[in-house]
Amino acid sequence: MADNVLPSYLASARPNPMSNRGPWYANIAPSYAGIFLWIAAYDKLPTALQTGGVATALVGLVLAGLIAHFLFYYVFGLLGMRTGLPLYVVGSSTFGTKGGLLFPGIFMGLLQIGWYSVATFYSTKLVLGGLGVKPELTMTVFDPTEAQRGFSLLFVIVAIAWGYLFAFIGALGVQYVAKMSQFFPIVPIIMLIVAAVSGASGVGKFEPKAETLSSVATIGLLIQLVVGFFATAGAAGVDFGTAARNERDVSLGGLFGVALAVLFTGGLATLTVAGAHGLDPNHASFSFADALPVVNLKLSKYMLLLFAVGSMAPACFCASIIGNSLSTMIPSLPRIGLTMGGATIGIILAASGLAGQVVSFFGLIGASFGPICGAIVADYLLSGRKWAGPREGVSIPGYAAWIIGFLVGICNNDLVTRLLGGPGHEILPGWHPTAVYSFIVGFVVYAVLATAGLQGKPVALPVAEAK
Question: CA-to-CA distance for 25 and 210, rounded, in angstroms?
């Protein structure tokens, strides 16, 4: 393919017209809030309580939400609003017409397979826990908890049934996902409030058990977990932004749907776990789901089932993005087939228990998309705070930014530490917000190389900018 010939994903691009857009509270805010209401988003956030108190953790959540909004969403929302075009088109300026096929195009779909595996793993655990199934029947081969490792045919069957059902709904199209999203987010909102109220009497009795307390470590870990979870969704702010009418919609949609949603979900989960430890000083886990039987034994099983119900919409959302991303970049293959194929990989990861390594997975996501986000923001600022349009070929600044930024981002990932020999061989302690570091490195590398003249030549895109 000659450089002056646009690939199909660009040649077929059409901006979302203003007539299809609406206010922030009808699209951007509820869409993002729905993502953060997924239990996978906040189940591990209370682990920060191991090194700091409740007040410090809440400060960390405020900072994490603001960083997610301003660094990882806002520019992307503006780009979507101003162009009306999706992320895979906008990314062709930073990564090139050919380079954009992988970053952020196909790469977004591949990462969503990972997200789908996490959704399936969590939902299967919640369903079996809510039904009161014996622990030995909920084991997985690679469960993150060593005591829970083993093979359970029941877990595999439930993971397959759950995974394929919601993959099929996602494959049918965004209209079906939207219908599910209208109702199911209400369920986790109510359950989070019930859980926090149930554990409220124990919050004042909570004391961190770590020998050395560190506010910096507590806040850093929360930023890492939130940004790692949010990085791909933040970049997808381009797609969400195409539904915005103006900059006010972009700003308010992010402040309420991202920053406030982080504090709401993470804050209530943190208060619940702190309450559980205050009520039962012998309680060992800092997982939100594990705290439910401590704060409310009578309702805990029902709550687990309802949190599984609340995970339906995010599962369908992930499946839909798998299909959209991969079918756009590989138009020769059918969308439903690509969706179900991607879901199959996700189900295998879930059934084996590999998808349960959530903290490590969040770190990899942040390391993967942090430099992509940083490079796109740098491109936006260097281009005079606008989208510059596609650039030919494969972008040297874009790919260099990703490679170097990714290497920085995985410096404290648990999977990397294991490869280096396990505990004691960390490049950086796990609490470092390396997802943010990778953003900064991606930004700087792209800016330096682009300023040095290594950007590709602009290519005309036969679509008008949305105004």
Answer: 41
Query: Helix axis angle, 312-329 relative to 335-352, nearest 10°?
Result: 130
| Each residue's pLDDT tens digit, 314-341 | 788 788 888 878 887 788 888 889 999 9
CB-count burial class (<10 Å; 0-12, 13-18, 19+) for 53: middle
Whether 63 contacts 223, CB under 8 Å: yes
Identify how many contiguous H helices and E strands the chain contains and give both numbers: 24, 0
Return d(Cα 210, Cα 218) in angstroms, integer.
Answer: 11
Instruction: Give dist(CA 378, CA 383) in Å, integer.
Output: 8
pLDDT in tens, 158-174: 999 999 988 888 787 65
Residue appearing with tokens 């990989």: 345
Q: Tell me the C-alpha distance between 378 and 446, whole Å.
A: 7
The C-alpha atoms of residue 198 and residue 271 are separated, in whole angstroms, by 10
Nearest Cα to Cα of residue 456 among 94, 106, 200, 127: 94
Beta carbons of 458 and 391 less than 8 angstroms apart: yes
In angstroms and rounded to an integer, the radius of gyration of the C-alpha atoms of the chain is 22
> How many whole angstroms separate alpha carbon 137 and alpha carbon 129?
10
Instruction: Return d(Cα 414, Cα 423) in angstroms, integer.
Output: 9
Closest CA to 231 of 364, 412, 89, 399: 364
Euclidean distance between CA atoms 355 and 418, whole angstroms: 17
Domains of the chain and any CATH numbers: 23-355 (1.10.4160.10)
pTM of the shown model: 0.91
In degrees and rounded to multiples of 5, residue 431 shows phi and psi of -80, -15
